[in-house]
Design a protein that fits this description.
The protein is of the alpha/beta class and about 220 residues long. The protein has a domain of about 70 residues. The protein has a 6-stranded mixed β-sheet, with helices on both faces. Helix 4 packs across helix 5. The longest helix is centred in the last third of the chain and has 16 residues. The structure holds adenosine-5'-triphosphate. GO terms for molecular function: ATP binding; ATP hydrolysis activity; transmembrane transporter activity. Homodimer. Forms a membrane-associated complex with FtsX. It is a peripheral membrane protein. Belongs to the ABC transporter superfamily.
């Protein structure tokens, strides 16, 4: 599902963020991405979502070489990758339903299909009863689950999450990780950047660790 081959990323103003990074993630795998602050985790995820391009090397996602992807195919690529952010980036003046529906509206789906899919996604994250609420009326954990519903509503084969539990207490964090496990069980590929080592070491998944933009280790927690 993901292949990085000798990927370098240099930000002109900050120097090297990733150096000679190579790894593969198989379809259906669930893996964590850890490493110190500034190690390059967000950069790696942004390369997968095509929010950034590598300075050198090759990134292949779901069989597509992103370096060779014509500009007009970028929206199609982004629909294959559900992205989840720490700050969930919800629209404050729109309902939960509208926030989750957004990717489907952009993709041009019909009214009925949108309703069906949005409710299925809200059901998966346990928020069906809150579809009319606006984000401010929700707790931090609920807001994050709306962000997750929005990421999976288009049924992408790949989901990447950048510090999805960064603002949550341990119980809510565990709940979010369990939700990711459920997506994993139905075949979604997941790559989750996190500082939550307490949770990572308790779960039986692969862990990629970055240090100063290099792959420091690639292991299983247990
Ligand atoms: N848009 C950008 N422009 C310039 N430099 C950047 C940009 N994004 C990241 N960097 C730099 O690249 C390096 C890697 O940052 P990145 O955000 O990928 O690390 P991270 O592991 O996600 O860190 P954190 O855990 O703090 O989020 C850092 O030195 C950072 O300052």
């Amino acid at each position: 599902m993901i292949s990085f081959e000798h990927v370098h990323k240099r930000y002109p103003e900050r120097g090297d963020a990733l150096t000679d990074l190579s790894f593969e993630l198989q379809a259906g795998e669930m893996a964590f991405l850890t490493g110190h602050s500034g190690a390059g985790k967000s950069t790696l995820l942004r390369l997968i979502g095509l929010l950034e391009r590598p300075t050198r090397g090759q990134v292949i996602v779901n069989g597509r070489n992103l370096g060779a992807l014509p500009r007009r195919k970028i929206p199609q690529h982004r629909r294959q990758v559900g992205m989840i952010f720490q700050d969930h980036r919800l629209l404050a003046d729109r309902s939960v339903f509208d926030n989750v529906a957004l990717p489907l509206v952009v993709a041009g789906l019909g009214h009925k299909e949108i309703g069906r899919r949005v409710r299925a996604a809200l059901d998966q994250v346990g928020l069906l009863a809150r579809e009319r609420a606006t984000p401010v009326a929700l707790s931090g954990g609920e807001q994050q689950r709306v962000g997750i519903a929005r990421a999976v509503v288009g049924r992408p084969p790949l989901v990447v999450a950048d510090e999805p539990t960064g603002n949550l207490d341990p119980d809510l964090s565990l709940e979010i990780f369990r939700l990711f496990e459920r997506f994993h069980q139905v075949g979604v590929t997941l790559l989750i950047a996190t500082h939550d080592l307490g949770l990572v070491t308790r779960m039986p998944y692969r862990r990629l660790t970055l240090a100063d933009g290099r792959l420091e280790s690639d292991s299983r927690s247990r």
